[in-house]
């Protein structure tokens, strides 16, 4: 056995014996190997190409992870590295899960510590625990994805390449404690508490980053927390073709520093997000339907922002599938779009009603590769100049078109 130089030096002066050192190193090595034996490493590399007809991309459609920098060119979106030790069947099982993001979308994820900016962010990092109560009570402690929503932060799990407005107004990441319990095969529920609605890791509701002159105390006490809950109903096998269909609902309420960050609207807001959705199987082989409703109620803002979307997916062959999404957004709180022009703000343009139509074709030609093309049309139903233009804040079009390709390698 090869020893490090410090072990050899200690043995030379009689502090330790090489035999005891060998046993200690063997024990340590065995312990490490045992701990790592059930750990898996996986992830994906997400790339895209986009063409945006027309001229001027200074004001892109404000759905999550979209930006002017992605228009009319080739993109590395994100690289995800996942390190995971899932829960096993033991009564007192323990594990962990880590999702690391690298690349431009990591910045848009927004989980970095205060004052930090780089092409790296932590998407999830939590300890998973199980207590042998009833059917098993599961815990997540740390940073985890929001428990509500039809779409995922992970593009490889979504039916479409681009995200919906409903997904955009949902909470994304929380730092806290989540408890989940499956009462039976068709009913499960989750409840949790977190520092804030997020997404910034370890953020507190009583401190607001980015305010003038450094930190500024927010509207809440030091003990203020965010709360969340959800339920899921899954159709059993006895329901025939509806087997596997799911109805889901939930809500998250707390503080978010990313809403209303201006001297006029205040630095951060308390808000509540509500979600209801369903995925339905059909008698047609490979055809599934979906519906999602999201509502964002921002405290002390005029009106609510909500979106309702319909989804259709058809697995035509083993490799070929088609996906469509139609969505209506009512942005009364002006969370995503500018406040319309007024005597106090004569240069503002904006809308409070937007239509999103997205069509996606996916063909899995290569092993482990998701390859898809997508056409998306965003339209202001108020016919307001909301998109395009060459200067940020001065859009000149009521429509935004995007033709894109998305290539993801999963490992």
Can you put this structure into words, describing what you see?
The structure is a single chain. The chain is mainly beta and 411 residues long. It folds into two domains: 30 residues; 370 residues, Porin, CATH 2.40.160. The chain is 9% helix and 44% strand. The two termini are 35 Å apart. The strands form two sheets. Strands 1-2-3-4-5-6-7-10-11-12-13-14-15-16-17-18 form a 16-stranded antiparallel barrel.
Largest sheet descriptor:
16 strands, antiparallel, barrel
Low-confidence stretches: 6-10
Secondary structure tally: strands: 18
Radius of gyration: 25 Å
pLDDT averaged residue by residue: 87
| Helical content band | under 10%
Q: Report the span from N to C terminus.
A: 35 Å
Percent of residues in beta strands? 35-45%
Side by side, the strands of the main sheet go 1-2-3-4-5-6-7-10-11-12-13-14-15-16-17-18
Order of helices and strands: HHEEEHEEHEEEEEEEEEEEEE
The second-level CATH architecture of the largest domain is: Beta Barrel
